[in-house]
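Whiteboard transcription, Tuesday session. T.W. wrote the structure tokens on the left side:
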């Protein structure tokens, strides 16, 4: 049998405990603040999207337009749940999707699904009002951007 340890109540034991508890709480708060600062530093810093960099940002997001997995990722990112097995199927599915390209890039950066509009008219109004207009000349060059292209003007 292990020996019994006798403890005596110290007149200041509650005060000592309160002081140690307070110190421990302060240390935990300091660690929490440091973790928040470190996690803020760890997050990638993305440039603000504008007409000058949206084309490059979309190209960086999408990659090669000849790879099926890039098309499948785009379909998934805009909320298409079907498993599509060819680029042609992806293009056809994207014809029914009305999403602003700027919003798509922002949503992907935040691991969210972008806002999808019910029709081209709603997307057109939103795009004009928000001034988030992808350069038409670049969009008509082809690839995945063309699949998302809506008639704005």
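and on the right, the sequence the group agreed on:
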């Amino acid at each position: 049998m292990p020996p019994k340890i006798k403890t005596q109540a110290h007149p200041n034991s509650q005060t000592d405990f309160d002081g140690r508890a307070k110190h421990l709480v302060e240390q935990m708060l300091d660690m929490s603040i440091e973790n928040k600062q470190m996690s803020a530093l760890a997050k990638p810093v993305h440039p603000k999207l504008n007409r000058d960099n949206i084309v490059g940002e979309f190209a960086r997001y999408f990659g090669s337009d000849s790879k099926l997995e890039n098309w499948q990722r785009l379909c998934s990112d805009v909320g298409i749940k079907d498993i599509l097995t060819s680029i042609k199927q992806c293009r056809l599915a994207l014809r029914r999707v009305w999403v602003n390209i700027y919003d798509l890039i922002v949503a992907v950066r935040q691991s969210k699904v972008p806002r999808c509009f019910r029709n081209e008219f709603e997307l057109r109004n939103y795009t004009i009002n928000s001034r988030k207009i992808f350069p038409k000349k670049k969009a008509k060059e082809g690839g995945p951007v063309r699949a998302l292209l809506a008639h704005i003007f």
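Someone added at the bottom: Residues 54-148 form one domain.
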